Amino acid sequence: MSEIRHRSRPFSSAQRLPDTDITPNAHQPEQAGAMLADYMHSHPRLLILTGAGVSTDSGIPDYRDGDGAWKRKQPVQHQAFMDSVQIRQRYWGRSLIGWPLMRNASPNASHHHISQLEMLNHSSLVVTQNVDRLHQKAGTQAVTDLHGRADEVLCMSCDYRCMRDEVHQRCAILNPQFCAFTADVAPDGDADLDIDFADFRLEDCPLCGGILKPDVVFFGDYVPKKRVNAALDALKASDGLLVIGSSLMVYSGFRFCRYAHEWGKPIATLNLGRTRAESLAMLRLNASIADTLQVCVSQL
Ligand SMILES: [Zn+2]
User: Fold this and answer.
1) Cα 186 to middle of ligand 1, angstroms
2) Measured distance CA(64)–CA(46) in Å, rounded
3) Residue 198, burial from CB neighbour count under 10 angstroms (0-12, 13-18, 19+)
4) H-helix or E-strand containing 98?
5) Structural domain includes residue 21
6) How do strand 123-128 and strand 46-50 relate by DSSP bridges?
7) Which residue, of 96, 104, 166, 259, is most buried by count of CB atoms within 10 Å of its CB?
8) Residue 11, domain member (yes or no)
9) Contacts of 137 (CB under 8 A, 6+ apart)
10) Structural domain includes residue 42
11) Could you give the maximum distance between any two Cα atoms of the chain, in Å?
């Protein structure tokens, strides 16, 4: 495995899913759930890869629409965050609004159904592209946070690590004038707030003065190799792959489909809209995620 990169290019704002990949017909949940249950009867132990579509019912928005295009401004890029004080001021300033909404989000029916799949021994590992920890809150035991976790903060220069709430509280005390705004929350604890953050006072590492960053793999950064390899090992030991709620536009997620295909593992997708794996998947379900999973679990 040479390149392990969570990259936004070449899937930039202008990018759409290839026109050759036809959107699967929309399914009714009864039909989709029965088809998914059949898939699990044939391939009982699955690696489950989840994306933003699983968390939208918890009030955490998706980055992309059904065609894989950005619905909103692109999220912060890793190098820009590291290089620019202004970008960090804007990130942590908007985070004062965005983080509490993510912190207080509750798992929805999809998270609970996926947890049931684990209890029924149908999940070898849940690999999630989401950083909201809602699978864990729903009780799922074996979860890999592929892109990290938004609830912890680390120093980019030393080993310091703390809960995000601590940094949030300290930022709020330093910047009371920025706490009163309201805005829509973004998928990574960011928020849609376009104001001047020039006066925002940044919180630095209390040990070394280094840059503090949520323990999230920002776009343009690498997913740690060990994390990816451990997840791929779990895929290798599974009977197949099930992708739920992801258009697979980000390569770090799509790579699981490529390896599954290479290793002769069947792939099923359950997503509202198209995915980048239309030509690789043996079962493609374009249906309501929560309703489909409910029907599926009832038939296992
Ligand atoms: Zn430090």
Assistant:
1) 27
2) 25
3) exposed
4) helix 85-103
5) no
6) parallel
7) 96
8) no
9) 106, 107, 111
10) yes
11) 59
Please check whether residue 221 lies inside any domain of the structure: yes
**C-alpha of residue 135 to centroid of ligand 1, in Å:** 30
Give residue 34's identity as a one-letter amino acid code: A
Ligand 1 centre distance from Cα of residue 96 (Å): 21
Residues with CB under 5 A from ligand 1 (ion): 155, 157-158, 160, 205, 207-208, 210
Q: Calculate how far, in angstroms, residue 154's C-alpha sits from the geometric centre of ligand 1.
A: 8
Place of tokens 């899913």: 17
Give the number of domains in the chain: 1
Per-residue confidence (pLDDT) for residue 44, from 0 to 100: 97
Tens digit of each residue's pLDDT (9 = 90 or more) over 110-167: 999 999 999 999 999 999 999 999 999 999 999 999 999 999 999 999 999 999 999 9
For residue 269, report the distance from its CA to the centre of ligand 1, in Å.
Answer: 41
Q: Residue 253 maps to which CATH number? A: 3.40.50.1220
pLDDT of 10 over the 70 cut = no
* Ligand 1 center from residue 142 Cα (angstroms): 30
Residue 195 has pLDDT above 90, yes or no: no
Is the model's pLDDT at 82 over the cut of 80? yes
Burial 99-138 (b: 16+ CB within 10 A, else e): bbbbbebebbebbbbbbbbbeeebbbbbbbbbbbbbbbeb
Beta strands 148-155 and 161-163 are: antiparallel
pTM of the model: 0.88
List the domain range (segments joined by +) for residue 263.
29-55+72-298
The catalytic residue positions are 147
What average pLDDT does the segment 205-222 reach? 94
